[in-house]
Give the backbone structure.
Amino acid sequence: MASGSGDEEGNTGGVSWRLIGPASELSKKRCRLMHSSLGYDSDVCLFYVKGEFFAMDARCSHSGGPLCEGDIEEADGVLQVFCPWHDYNFDLRTGRSGTSLQQQVYEVKLEDGNVYVKHRSRLSLQPFPPDRKS
């Protein structure tokens, strides 16, 4: 499976469509962590719920909890992820919470059977190797 590379398509202001991989594989799990080349704080969750893909920052904006490990529920037609640490909820489409918190969401598109996420960094399903400083 492709693990996300660089500038597969258009680059405006540092934000580009990033190839994540084939939808047929990515749809097998409800959530996948996508590692960012910018580091831990820029990682993204790719959710697959009710036949749709959604992407948002992987760490909860409250205290950094791992949203990929959170429960996903639908209430009044709104799909939400709940942070496993403090139970804050975030709308998968908008990133809005029932509180004043806001989670960054990213555009997702399907093209030729592949999933793309619009993001400022390279994204990968595998961690990037650490920078070697000598």
Remarks:
- The longest strand covers residues 15-22.
- The helical segments are 23-26.
- Residues 1-13 have pLDDT under 50 and may be disordered.
